[in-house]
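Kindly review this record before class:
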Amino acid sequence: MSIAFIGLQILGICAVFFALALLLNGDGSREQKMMEYFLMGALIQNIGYLLELTAPTMEAAMVAVKVQHLGTMIIPVCYCYFIYIYCFEEAPLKALKLLGLIDAVLLLLILTCDYHSLFYRYLDWETTADGHSYLFLEYGPGYAVFIICATLIPYVMSLRVLIRAKSRRGEDAVDRKYGLILTLSFLPVIALYAYVTKLTRAFDFTPVVLGLVLSSVVILVWSRKVYDFGSLASGTLLNRMSDGVIALDERGRVVNYNPASAAIFAGLNSRAVGRRVGEIADFPEIVLGEDVQNEFFLGERYYQSHVEQITDRFGVVKGYVVRILDMTEVRNYIEEIKQIRIQAEQANEAKSEFLANMSHEIRTPMNAIVGLSDIIMEESKGRKVHDYACDIKSASRNLLALINDILDLSKVEAGKMELVCTDYHIKNIVDEVINMMDGAASKRGILLKCEFDMSIPCRYHGDEGRIRQILINLLNNGLKFTREGYVKLSVGGGPGETADTELLHIEVRDTGCGIKEEDLGKIFENFSQVDAKRNRTVEGTGLGLSITRHLVALMGGTIRVESVYGEGTTFILELPQTIVDRRTLNEVPKEIVSEEDEIKTFQAEDCRVLVVDDNLVNRKVAKGFLRPYGLMIDEADSGQKSIECVRETRYDIIFMDHMMPGMDGIEAVQRIRRECGENGTLPVIIALTANAMEGVREMFLENGFQDFITKPLDKKALNETLKKWIPEQKRQEPDTWEHSVEKMRKAKPAEK
């Protein structure tokens, strides 16, 4: 029997050694350390008891008993602490420390038992029937304290925690084998009871049973943690994550964490497991706030936290997962993007300001050139100088078209380009464009062709001005790059998406130099001109096709290009337009429209007008355009002078230049409205501006103006504006512009 029991004891020691070996590659957590401590205690206890079994004398056996109790005192408190950690319960550290202190006192009593009888009252060396000698002990009052404080209380605490964890009936209770550990924990208690009550007089099964149970618990826990594939996979993934992850139980205590989170929080280490996360050094309380997402700074780094609840299948909250994302680089990148956006906005504002200034600076002399050309043309009909004036006006209009291209591009890039839709006759627009471009084609010796599908409807609803601009751009592009042959404009149509729409099909074909295949994608870019070496003599800004593409897209249409290098190019447009008149072009081939020469003017001799402009030539142009109406015209060369004039005289209309040195037009109007009484509140004030940027109209209307006219002045636009603001009772018999000019020559109204 003694040999078999010694073999069993050796088996227990081997089991403890095996369990300790499993823990060699641990993560250093408190859970692991507690397992190492109680296994070391079990190892010392079992080795001590093995020495007691093989002791030849009573003195040697007593030394072995003291060694055995050295291990016994370690096990209960460490095992109890481990159970609390494993079951995610908050350990009663003060109680455990008190029990540890009592164990230390009891160990001192055991080590000094040779000098007193407090722990062992009687010792004897007995021999069994088969010749095995063993130590017989009768216990004193110290042993009762040992049983209660060093054994019973820790184990009762452990069993209570295991029973409570098992009673949760959640998935984690099944997964973590609480029931099995609870069952195993009862076995050492049974063995101890058998020995204390002398059911096993010669042999104490408590050390070997305790060693085997503790080894089984460690193997059960650690094998699941280390060898379970799911745990390995999740652990590997967790450890390799660059974001911090902290697992908490339902009470906010740390259950697990990954290396990334430990790198963020200096206080997050193996000792933090089982403690409330708020107790960890540097851990901000805001992370556990009510909001799911929080942000905080730590160590000059910017972090973002996300808290997610973990529930079981019954919906019971079992804990939380806190994810800590290092957003420093992202935040820096966002700040850089913000700075770039601010710089881009500033650059865009600077560009808009530059374009506005450029528009003003160029349109101001252009107003003089175009306006004086008009006046010369009207006053010199039949003379050779009339032809010169026509050439000057044509050249100035071409220059004005370039300016408008740049301004249109600015509007498109700002997303402020708007369509002005009206009813129009498609053939009228095309014929007008062909007549306009025919002169340029003839000068180049190029044939300009035009053909229609006469079965398409005659009238549509759309932006005729933009359609005209698109056709001019495409025809002008074809003429510039064609040295011989022809440029052909074809207009057709097909059914649109609805019964009320037509898909206009427009082709512009030329026999020019063509475009290389690799350059086809570049022709619609801003300021782009492909094959620059070959076409270096071709004039232009490179904006026409870019603006055309934007206009087509704004109308909901498409444009594409087909080209064979050296043979020619074809631009193909498809524009959806609303049908207004379903009669075909065969039925209504042309619509009669009024010509510019037939502008119907009127006389308003009782109307007094003030023209304010710092530029003398501009004032001359404005007066020249206004004289045919028989108006009484005054002029002022500055904002301050205009205020003085308004104080002295009541005007019906004031034409106010926008940009003037010293006091600009807006400030002058504000002072006129505020300081000049009825003389300042009654007149209609119309802005004369060379600024054609988007938003100008709103700016004027918000600052006391009623209307505005852009420079260069246009006779038709001016006539419509005067009709709008001069009451009918002050207007006299309609007349033609030519007749008004003749009357003006004979009798000029008084001017200041």
